[in-house]
Design a protein that fits this description.
By secondary structure, the chain is mainly alpha-helical. It has five helices and no strands.
Protein backbone atom coordinates (compact mmCIF):
# COMPACT_ATOMS: atom_id res chain seq x y z
CA UNK A 1 0.00 0.00 0.00
CA UNK A 2 1.25 3.43 -0.81
CA UNK A 3 0.91 5.69 2.18
CA UNK A 4 0.22 9.38 1.88
CA UNK A 5 3.40 11.43 1.85
CA UNK A 6 4.46 13.45 4.87
CA UNK A 7 3.67 16.75 3.16
CA UNK A 8 0.01 15.82 2.61
CA UNK A 9 -0.27 14.79 6.28
CA UNK A 10 0.42 18.40 7.26
CA UNK A 11 -2.43 19.76 5.17
CA UNK A 12 -5.85 19.98 6.84
CA UNK A 13 -8.47 17.61 5.50
CA UNK A 14 -11.52 19.00 3.73
CA UNK A 15 -14.65 18.69 5.85
CA UNK A 16 -16.26 16.05 3.62
CA UNK A 17 -13.14 13.87 3.68
CA UNK A 18 -12.91 14.14 7.46
CA UNK A 19 -16.59 13.22 7.76
CA UNK A 20 -16.11 10.20 5.47
CA UNK A 21 -13.18 9.02 7.57
CA UNK A 22 -15.12 9.32 10.83
CA UNK A 23 -18.18 7.61 9.32
CA UNK A 24 -16.01 4.72 8.12
CA UNK A 25 -14.84 4.11 11.69
CA UNK A 26 -18.39 4.43 13.05
CA UNK A 27 -20.08 2.52 10.22
CA UNK A 28 -20.49 -0.59 12.37
CA UNK A 29 -22.82 1.39 14.66
CA UNK A 30 -24.69 2.94 11.74
CA UNK A 31 -25.74 -0.45 10.37
CA UNK A 32 -23.51 -0.26 7.30
CA UNK A 33 -20.51 -2.06 8.80
CA UNK A 34 -18.74 -3.41 5.74
CA UNK A 35 -20.60 -1.47 3.09
CA UNK A 36 -19.49 2.11 3.77
CA UNK A 37 -15.75 1.43 4.17
CA UNK A 38 -15.86 -0.80 1.07
CA UNK A 39 -17.55 1.88 -1.07
CA UNK A 40 -15.18 4.60 0.17
CA UNK A 41 -12.21 2.27 -0.41
CA UNK A 42 -13.36 1.58 -3.99
CA UNK A 43 -13.98 5.25 -4.78
CA UNK A 44 -10.69 6.48 -3.28
CA UNK A 45 -8.59 3.49 -4.43
CA UNK A 46 -6.89 5.35 -7.27
CA UNK A 47 -5.99 8.35 -5.11
CA UNK A 48 -4.13 6.60 -2.24
CA UNK A 49 -4.85 9.50 0.07
CA UNK A 50 -5.66 9.63 3.77
CA UNK A 51 -9.34 8.82 3.18
CA UNK A 52 -8.30 5.68 1.28
CA UNK A 53 -5.91 4.67 4.07
CA UNK A 54 -8.61 5.03 6.75
CA UNK A 55 -11.20 3.20 4.65
CA UNK A 56 -8.75 0.35 4.01
CA UNK A 57 -7.83 0.05 7.69
CA UNK A 58 -11.48 0.11 8.73
CA UNK A 59 -12.45 -2.44 6.08
CA UNK A 60 -9.69 -4.77 7.25
CA UNK A 61 -10.83 -4.42 10.86
CA UNK A 62 -14.47 -5.09 9.99
CA UNK A 63 -13.59 -8.13 7.88
CA UNK A 64 -11.49 -9.44 10.75
CA UNK A 65 -14.37 -8.94 13.17
CA UNK A 66 -16.77 -10.80 10.88
CA UNK A 67 -14.37 -13.74 10.53
CA UNK A 68 -13.73 -13.85 14.27
CA UNK A 69 -17.51 -13.68 14.85
CA UNK A 70 -18.01 -16.68 12.58
CA UNK A 71 -15.33 -18.54 14.52
CA UNK A 72 -17.00 -17.63 17.80
CA UNK A 73 -20.35 -18.83 16.48
CA UNK A 74 -18.78 -22.17 15.62
CA UNK A 75 -17.19 -22.37 19.08
CA UNK A 76 -20.56 -21.71 20.72
CA UNK A 77 -21.30 -25.38 20.11
CA UNK A 78 -18.92 -26.19 22.97
CA UNK A 79 -20.02 -23.21 25.08
CA UNK A 80 -16.93 -21.01 24.92
CA UNK A 81 -18.20 -19.10 21.87
CA UNK A 82 -20.77 -17.14 23.87
CA UNK A 83 -18.08 -15.63 26.09
CA UNK A 84 -15.93 -14.85 23.06
CA UNK A 85 -18.84 -13.14 21.27
CA UNK A 86 -19.37 -10.91 24.31
CA UNK A 87 -15.66 -10.02 24.38
CA UNK A 88 -15.67 -9.39 20.64
CA UNK A 89 -18.71 -7.12 20.95
CA UNK A 90 -17.00 -5.10 23.67
CA UNK A 91 -13.80 -4.84 21.61
CA UNK A 92 -15.73 -3.71 18.52
CA UNK A 93 -17.55 -1.08 20.56
CA UNK A 94 -14.41 0.36 22.12
CA UNK A 95 -12.10 0.12 19.10
CA UNK A 96 -14.58 1.74 16.73
CA UNK A 97 -14.95 4.74 19.00
CA UNK A 98 -11.18 5.00 19.53
CA UNK A 99 -10.69 4.85 15.75
CA UNK A 100 -13.23 7.62 15.17
CA UNK A 101 -11.67 9.87 17.81
CA UNK A 102 -8.18 9.31 16.40
CA UNK A 103 -9.49 9.98 12.89
CA UNK A 104 -11.14 13.21 14.04
CA UNK A 105 -7.71 14.28 15.29
CA UNK A 106 -6.11 13.44 11.94
CA UNK A 107 -4.37 10.24 13.05
CA UNK A 108 -4.57 6.97 11.12
CA UNK A 109 -5.65 4.44 13.73
CA UNK A 110 -4.24 0.96 13.18
CA UNK A 111 -6.67 -1.51 14.73
CA UNK A 112 -4.87 -4.07 16.90
CA UNK A 113 -4.98 -7.77 16.00
CA UNK A 114 -6.35 -7.02 12.53
CA UNK A 115 -5.63 -9.21 9.54
CA UNK A 116 -4.58 -7.15 6.53
CA UNK A 117 -6.89 -8.84 4.03
CA UNK A 118 -7.47 -5.82 1.78
CA UNK A 119 -4.63 -3.86 0.32
Amino acid sequence: MTTPDAESDLLPLPTLDKLLIILCHLSWYLGVGLLLPFVVWLVKKSEHDRVFAHAQETLNAHLTWVLIGIGCALLSVIGIGVVLVILLGFAVLVLGIVGAVKAANGVLYRYPLTWRLVG
